[in-house]
Amino acid sequence: MNKGILFVLGTAVISGFAIFTSKILVASIDPIVYTTLKNLFVAGVLTAILIANKSLRNQWKQLSRRDWWNLIAIGAIGGGIPFALFFTGLKLTSATDATLIHKTLFIWVALFAIPVLHERLRLIQMAGYVLVLWGVLWTSGYRFAGDTGELYIALATILWALENILAKKAVSHIPGIIVAWGRMTVGVGILAILLVIMGKAPLMADLHTNMLMPFLAASILLTGYVVTYYSSLKYIPVTVASAVLILATPITALLEYGILNKAISFSQWQSYGLLAIGLLCITGFFLHVHRHRQPVSTGQ
């Protein structure tokens, strides 16, 4: 199977676990403080990896001024303010609803990628997009209410879509892990400044001992998320990668069912069936067309 598809499948699994874990943690700590601490941990881990790996370290040192500006833009648009918006919104709405809104990311990505990156969607893939969107927003019974939490998450999702476009361009000549490092490092700097402005910096000490293990788990999941996702973008179109992330939705729901005893309705099972069929249309066509070709980095 295409290496990029394997990477992004891993990202989807990680995402499903990460949102469930984050929902539990943001109930007991300020969401912006939480995401700043978590992103700081991830930035530190990625920095250590870059320093320890000679090949990555050399490529890191050879980044051009333009590359640095691209990393700063990715960090600002994708690693800073959207995190604050998302985790604040997550505290105001359910984990499943937050996941559903966030998973409309593939629609926003396509709207930007088609004119900017010149990626193309074939007819069968468009049908897949319709099925996935149907599964996310209709059969699930979800309706966008427009409350504060949902608006925060929607705005964060649009910013992340823009970041996807910038990242897709960047990974054509910069290793995915370096792009991930730029996103997290610049982003955590912005979040730290935001905390100071809001007077929440002292709350950084609010991470109690009993929260340490869940926090480390969430941080490790985020590290895996950014590394696998940015790595996938080197091999597959961003329109495909962002669509596969929708698999996180049923994973989060299953976790809520198994751990929190939150029931999964028949309509939700129908929704997940549509998601599966839609994703088969999107990814199956891509794999069929590119089976005997080299991995691509700019389009289909």
UniProtKB/TrEMBL annotation:
Report the residue ranges that make up the EamA domain in this protein.
Answer: 3-140, 148-283
Write out the entry's keywords from A to Z.
Answer: Cell membrane, Membrane, Transmembrane, Transmembrane helix
Spell out the InterPro entries in the cross-references.
Answer: AA-Vitamin_Transporters (IPR050638), EamA_dom (IPR000620), EmrE-like (IPR037185)
Q: What is its main location?
A: membrane
Look up and give the membrane topology term.
Multi-pass membrane protein
- Write out the annotated subcellular location: Cell membrane
SUPFAM superfamilies according to UniProt: Multidrug resistance efflux transporter EmrE
- Which GO CC terms are listed, alphabetically? plasma membrane
What are the transmembrane regions? 37-56, 68-88, 100-117, 126-145, 151-167, 179-199, 211-231, 238-260, 272-289
Do you know which PANTHER family this protein is assigned to?
A: INNER MEMBRANE TRANSPORTER, S-ADENOSYLMETHIONINE_S-ADENOSYLHOMOCYSTEINE TRANSPORTER
Spell out the protein name for this chain.
EamA domain-containing protein
Record organism: Candidatus Roizmanbacteria bacterium RIFCSPLOWO2_01_FULL_45_11
